[in-house]
Design a protein that fits this description.
The chain is mainly alpha-helical. It has one domain (12-101). It contains 5 helices and no strands. The relative contact order is 0.06.
C-alpha cells in the first residue's frame, strides 16, 4: 500500500480516517493481521484496566466523602448532647466510631 501524505491526517474527517485505517488493515498479511488483532486486544485490555482503576478511584472518593460527612454530623450531634446510640443510628457510624470522635 502506498504511503499517505501525512498532511492528509491533519485535515481528514473521522470518516476518511476510518476508511484509511480499513484500507491499511485489509492490506496486511495474515501474520501482520494476527499481530494487529493481538495489539487491539492489548489496547482494549489496557483501557478496561484504566477504566476500572478510574471507577474504583471514584468509588473510593465517594466512600471517603460519605464517611467524612457522617463524622462531621456526629461531631455536631455530640456538641448538641445526643446519645451515642442516637448518633450511631442517625449517621450510620458504629458506636466505637462515635466514641472515637468524643
Amino acid at each position: 500500500m502506498e504511503e499517505i501524505d501525512p498532511h492528509v491526517f491533519e485535515v481528514a474527517d473521522e470518516g476518511l480516517l476510518e476508511l484509511i485505517e480499513k484500507a491499511r488493515v485489509s492490506a496486511l498479511s495474515p501474520e501482520e493481521y494476527a499481530r494487529y488483532e493481538a495489539e487491539l486486544k492489548i489496547i482494549g485490555d489496557e483501557g478496561s484496566v484504566e477504566a476500572y482503576g478510574y471507577d474504583r478511584g471514584v468509588d473510593d472518593g465517594i466512600e471517603k466523602g460519605m464517611q467524612k460527612r457522617a463524622e462531621e454530623t456526629a461531631r455536631r450531634m455530640i456538641e448538641r448532647g445526643f446519645s451515642i446510640d442516637d448518633i450511631a443510628f442517625c449517621t450510620g457510624l458504629t458506636q466505637a466510631e462515635v466514641e472515637k470522635l468524643m
